[in-house]
Amino acid sequence: MTQAPPRPQPTVDTAKKVRIIVWIVIAAVVAAGVIWFAVFTATKPAPSTAVPAGGAQLVREDSHRITTPATEKAQLVEFLDFECESCRAAYPLVEELKKEYGDRITFVQRYFPLAGHRNSGTAALAVEAAAQQGKYEVMAAKLFETQPQWGEKSDSQAATFRSYAQELGLDMVRYDAAVADEKTQARIRKDASDGSALGVTGTPTFFLDGKKLTLDTEEQFRGLLDEAAK
Question: Mind listing the pLDDT tens digit for each residue in 47-82?
Fold first, then answer.
């Protein structure tokens, strides 16, 4: 008896499948995330720069603007954690959107280290120290690129982050001073305090023109940006 030929397997759009999984993970993490108010030490008193709920601001003068359109149509603010897997998964899409809409929309990124990530506060410190030398984006990209190597570690990854700073050609005297400076730590706590007061509970969380977004798909995200950029 002749065997029937095997049935052809349906072609799977791998890239699309990955994107769908990314959105599911992002939704789950944002829903379950908890802010780590004491970014560096649980017993350390809140500094004078801590922002009360009534004084929270979505964007501050020193917030990191990663696009500067000549004519701003809208602002997209992202609260992120460099040890967050969902933030790493969303990073390539944010980069795409930045290229597509950056001439009309101001993209802003703010720190929001989460309690479950041992090195999220330390990572934010490294990025902010780099930012003080004009290297915010390159250090942020480096940490997302290497996250599988240093993320979810129980021991401090400060030395690893310092080695990245050296690779990027930073002035290491200035870098070390910035990492040790209480003002740098307070800068990060201010972002986290603002985020919490604004209802951020997990990362990545996006605000478009002041409205907190609930995102289900990439298409929905692009549609919102299309409308805002008109």
Answer: 333 334 458 999 999 999 999 999 999 999 999 999
- Nearest residue to 188 via CA among 137, 114, 134: 114
pTM of the model: 0.80
Quick: pLDDT tens for 164-218. 999 999 999 999 999 999 999 999 999 999 999 999 999 999 999 999 999 999 9
Contacts from 55-59 at CB under 8 Å and sequence distance 24+? 56/193, 56/194, 56/197, 56/198, 57/194, 58/194, 58/198, 58/207, 58/210, 59/108
Among candidate residues 124, 126, 114, 136, the one with its CA nearest the CA of residue 161: 126
Contact 35, 199 (CB under 8 A): no
Q: Which helix (H) or strand (E) is 74 found in, with range?
A: strand 74-80
